[in-house]
């Protein structure tokens, strides 16, 4: 008997909407924004956390997908011994800064082995 993952159908829906949003961002940015908004609303309604990689690809203001040199401009800046990637959305002009560690073996906490409590098949 396998355990049922809470919100599994919601995660599948978020994944599907993410893929559609990424496909539509070049053809119709408004539709991509709509799908991005649905992703965030589904996660809020079901109290689910969106994976950081997906969350970083969604613009915070217009919810359009951010793809380098397609829907967003990227710049690498140095600030006080650390590097920052600055994303600028082509749709709404919003800027977003993401820190980049100089340490090469840096990874998100989600990707670390101590973050995994139980593997469900």
Give the C-alpha Rg.
16 Å
Strand order of the largest sheet: 1-2-3
Helix and strand string, N-terminal first?
Answer: HHHEEE
Main sheet: strands, sense, barrel: 3 strands, antiparallel
Task: Report the average pLDDT across residues.
Answer: 84
Number of strands: 3
Q: How big a fraction of the residues is strand?
A: 15-25%
- Total helix count? 3
Overall helicity: 25-40%
Structural class estimated from helices and strands? alpha+beta
Overall 3D form: flat
Low-confidence stretches: none
Estimate nothing, just give the exact number of structural domains: 1
Which oligomerization state do the chains in this entry correspond to?
Answer: single chain
Q: In whole angstroms, how far apart are the ends?
A: 10 Å
Question: Could you give the topology of this structure?
Answer:
Elements: H1 8-24, H2 29-45, H3 52-55, E1 72-79, E2 82-89, E3 95-100
Antiparallel strand pairs: 1-2, 2-3
Describe the structure.
With 121 residues, the protein is of the alpha+beta class. The chain has one domain. It is built from three helices and three strands; from the N terminus they run αααβββ. The protein has helices at residues 8-24, 29-45, 52-55, and strands at 72-79, 82-89, 95-100. It has a three-stranded antiparallel sheet with strand order 1-2-3, with no helix packed on it. Strand 2 and strand 3 (95-100) form a beta hairpin. Helix 1 packs antiparallel against helix 2. The model has no long low-confidence stretch (mean pLDDT 84). Keywords: Metal-binding, tRNA processing, Zinc. One of its GO terms (cellular component) is nucleolar ribonuclease P complex. One of its GO terms (molecular function) is metal ion binding.
């Amino acid at each position: 008997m396998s355990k049922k993952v809470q919100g599994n159908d919601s995660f599948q829906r978020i994944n599907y909407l993410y893929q559609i949003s990424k496909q539509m961002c070049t053809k119709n940015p408004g539709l991509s924004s709509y799908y991005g908004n649905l992703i965030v609303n589904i996660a809020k309604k079901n109290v689910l956390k969106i994976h950081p990689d997906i969350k970083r690809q969604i613009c915070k203001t217009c919810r359009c997908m951010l793809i380098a040199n397609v829907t967003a401009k990227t710049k690498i800046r140095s600030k006080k011994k650390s590097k920052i990637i600055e994303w600028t959305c082509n749709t709404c002009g919003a800027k977003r800064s993401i820190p980049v560690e100089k340490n090469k073996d840096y990874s998100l906490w989600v990707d670390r082995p101590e973050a995994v409590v139980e593997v469900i098949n």
